[in-house]
Design a protein that fits this description.
Distance between the termini: 21 Å
CATH class of the largest domain: Alpha Beta
CATH topology of the largest domain: Aminopeptidase
Helix content: 25-40%
Shape: elongated
Radius of gyration: 24 Å
Bound molecules: zinc ion
Number of domains: 2
Low-confidence stretches: 413-417
């Protein structure tokens, strides 16, 4: 077997070709799932996979799948996504797919005895133009027919209509689900989308966990009154109560919160919303993120009790509504060790870190040993036209992925599938 090395030029060429689908004249990329640009990129990817010697297809959820090895064998899946946010960049998702393709191509070219199944997958709608992580959830059985049936795009277009536009059918969506036995393990290379690796001068981040997200709405109701004639101690001021609760919970988080936890109030409204009226109503939406389920529960409980207290203090009614949650997911310790071993051998400086953003990997983490590799994002910028990772970082990340793939194949499949 010849030595297996990433072909840098080919990898960067493919990445820049993929960036041309949905490229905007002023910079940035618009390539949401089920758009014409996404369909064209998928078609191009199928052709690139086929050219590389993979058996390529688009499944019933719009996932592009390229496979090496017999159909019945469990696969090491190397995936990410090729859809973008509106005005997104050329690296988020794309890097993981193109690097996985390059790895498969190198293995084929060097005559590596894979002897087993390897899949390169571009998951559909990771960014949630219609339904967040639609493709990886559909494939791993984490999507209900009801959820898919009611999903809509930002302009209100039903998912079913969007699928139809690109020749897919909602009626067949469930066919994208595969038996858990179809998967052996999962790897994803991704840009960090944050500033840590660059700031610390590190080559690689090994993801320890993907942090969970929990969203809740708090609606306070008191009484709207004249802002000049109502004494301060006779008010039932929902706006003030919301501010007090928010300030209190941020203070508590600063003092006692887990360092990797995140607390955000991204929406806050007062009713009626006039300078001369004591607000009789307030609505706040909080998002809690944490690497451990326990930290997430604690932070959510802290927000709940801050609002309970503020409501009681100002004689208000309080309604809490849970708007959705994704549990934190954990990468396999064996996979983390294996990637760390690869980094040491390749002489790359690395750290084990949580991922603050959600990834398709979380849908595989409960099913099979899963690992994620991060490379630095310039300035920590992502979901933006200026998203950039240095060519060296891209190539280094792909080299880590390639070596990890080889070791996963050797380690888990030594004695056959
Ligand atoms: Zn992504």
């Amino acid at each position: 077997m010849r030595s297996a090395k990433i072909n840098c030029e080919r990898l960067l060429d493919d990445l820049s070709k993929l960036a041309s689908f949905g490229a905007l004249p002023a910079g940035g990329i618009d390539r949401p799932a089920f758009s014409a640009a996404h369909a064209q990129a998928s078609e191009w990817l199928v052709a690139r996979m086929t050219h590389a010697g993979l058996r390529a297809r688009v499944d019933d959820a719009g996932n592009v799948i390229g496979r090496l090895g017999p159909d019945e064998w469990p696969a090491l899946v190397c995936g990410s996504h090729i859809d973008t946010v509106p005005g997104g960049g050329a690296f988020d998702g794309s890097l993981g797919v193109i690097a996985a393709l390059e790895c498969a191509r190198v293995l084929v070219e060097t005559g590596a005895d894979i002897g087993k199944a390897l899949e390169v997958v571009a998951f559909c709608d990771e960014e949630g133009a219609y339904l967040s992580m639609l493709g990886s959830r559909a494939m791993t059985g984490g999507l209900s027919a009801e959820e898919a049936g009611t999903a809509k795009g930002r302009d209100g277009e039903p998912l079913a209509g969007a699928m139809q536009r690109v020749g897919l059918s909602m009626a067949n969506l469930a066919r994208a689900e595969r038996r858990p036995r179809a998967f052996d393990s999962y790897l994803e290379l991704h840009i960090e989308q944050g500033p840590v690796l660059e700031a610390k001068g590190l080559d690689v981040g090994i993801v320890g966990s993907i942090i969970g997200v929990d969203i809740a709405e708090y609606v306070l109701k008191g009484q709207s009154r004249h802002a000049g004639t109502t004494p301060m101690d006779e008010r039932r001021d929902a706006g003030r109560a919301a501010c007090e609760a928010i300030t209190a919970v941020f203070a508590a988080q600063e003092q006692r919160g887990a360092p990797e936890s995140r607390l955000t109030f991204g929406a806050l409204e007062f009713v009626p919303g006039a300078s001369n009226v004591v607000p009789g109503g307030a609505r706040a939406v909080s998002e809690v993120r944490a690497a451990r389920a326990q930290d997430m529960r604690q932070l959510r409980a802290a927000v709940d009790s801050a609002f309970d207290l503020a409501a009681a203090r100002h004689a208000l009614t309080l309604e809490k509504r849970h708007l959705g949650a994704d549990k934190p997911s954990h990468m396999a310790p064996d996979m983390i060790d294996l990637i760390a071993g690869v980094c040491s051998e390749l002489d790359f400086k690395f750290t084990v870190m949580p991922s603050g953003a959600s990834h398709d990997a979380s849908n595989f983490a409960e099913l099979v040993p899963t690992g994620m590799i991060f490379v630095a994002s310039r300035g920590g910028v992502s979901h933006h036209p200026e998203e950039f990772s240095e060519p060296r970082a891209v190539v280094n990340g792909a080299a880590v992925l390639l070596e990890t793939i080889k070791r996963v194949i050797a380690a888990r499949w030594k004695d056959g599938p």
